[in-house]
């Protein structure tokens, strides 16, 4: 089981903050592809170059490995001051 979290605009656009899924995925790119099967909006939100990902609270990339029990979070760029 993979716990997938969405923050910021992604949470609002996708109308969900969390999903628990069991999918045969081994990296972030495969997870994005699987979630993209939910529709065009999902594809657009997750394929954006500015969408960031963290695995177990560590910034990752499309090539980052995902294991059973991991937490994967997608979020928009963060700015602060």
Automatic annotation (TrEMBL):
Highest taxon of source: Bacteria
Gene3D superfamilies in the record: 3.10.20.30
Database matches in InterPro entries: Beta-grasp_dom_sf, Mopterin_synth/thiamin_S_b, ThiS/MoaD-like
NCBIfam families the UniProt entry points to: moaD (TIGR01682)
Stated name of the protein: Molybdopterin synthase sulfur carrier subunit
Organism: Paraglaciecola polaris LMG 21857
């Amino acid at each position: 089981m993979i716990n997938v979290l969405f923050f910021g605009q992604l949470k609002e656009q996708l109308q969900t903050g969390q999903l628990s899924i069991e999918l045969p995925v081994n990296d972030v790119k495969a997870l994005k592809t699987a979630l993209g099967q939910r529709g065009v909006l999902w594809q657009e939100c997750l394929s954006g170059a500015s969408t960031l990902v963290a695995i177990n609270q560590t910034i990752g990339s499309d090539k980052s490995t995902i294991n059973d029990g991991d937490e994967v979070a997608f979020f928009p760029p963060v700015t602060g001051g």
